[in-house]
Amino acid sequence: MPKRKGFDYYYSPSKPRETKGGIKAHTKRGEIGSKWWSRKLISILKSYGWESRLSRGARYARAGQVIKINMDKGKVDAYVQGSRSKPYHVKIEFPVIHEDQWKNIFKMLEEHKEVVSELLTGNVPLDLEDLLEKINTSLFIKNPDDIDMSCTCPDYAVPCKHIAAVFYILAENFDTDPFLMLLLRGKDKQEIMSAVSDTNESDNAEKPEIENHTSDLYTFWSGNDTKTIKMDTTKSNPLTRYPLPDELNDPEIMAILFEYYSNIKKAAEKLENKV
């Protein structure tokens, strides 16, 4: 029951009912979300003045009080177990990017296939946000009024702790699948990959020559170069410096190569440390 305090009503602190099989945040202490993009999302939400509400939601997320969560284009539908027998229904809506703007995004991704490849390996490159800003869009929501939130709990505050718990579970899912962030902006992974592939097939323009690397390009990828090369682990990934031959120029192939290179780089660093 609400109690009167001054001219407002407030609700006495209540203990949520214990859940079984809820979705638990894996991080037990500190910030929930291990990657820079999920932490930036939480940081942005806190900057809206929601820090105290989010901290209460973090406890719910760690306790597994979020029992169900579904995502669709620009929408999140979830159920969170509170103190009452019936779970609270949480809805969050994000503004989707306009179709015309998505065409610009697809064109940008076609020009920067390494970005798509890194997304496929579960990583968001640091320069993605800069690339999006150049075409007047963003991966993150910058205005709190653009997020529509509701919860069936009696708390008048928005976001309440139940909504905040859902945000934290979303952040952890973004850690492992950054394409989910793009889903909230209007496109799923399959649509993005299909659009980038279609752009690639329809683009017959001659590709610019890459200075100082073109002559050795096919030798580099064919493996016929017998020279012994000492790997410089301080430099950027060579996959961003040497474009693949046309017949291999596919983001999914790039994703596999990015993973191989990452493993090779780690092994090389271990060998250097032993020397």
Kindly describe this structure.
- The protein is globular.
- The model is unreliable at 1-11, 202-222 and 225-231 (pLDDT under 50).
- 44% of the residues lie in helices and 11% in strands.
- 26% of the residues are buried.
- It is of the alpha+beta class and 275 residues long.
Give the overall average pLDDT: 78
Number of alpha- plus pi-helical segments: 9
* N→C terminal distance: 70 Å
Walk across the major sheet and give the strand order. 3-4-5-6
Query: Ranges with pLDDT <50 over ≥5 residues?
Result: 1-11, 202-222, 225-231
Query: Structural class, from helix and strand content?
Result: alpha+beta
Order of helices and strands: EEHEEEHHHEHHHHH
Helix content: 40-55%
The largest sheet, given as strand count, sense and whether it forms a barrel, is: 4 strands, antiparallel
Strand content: 5-15%
Rounded to an integer in angstroms, the radius of gyration calculated over CA atoms is: 23 Å
Globular, elongated, flat, extended or rod-shaped: what is the shape? globular
Count of β-strands: 6
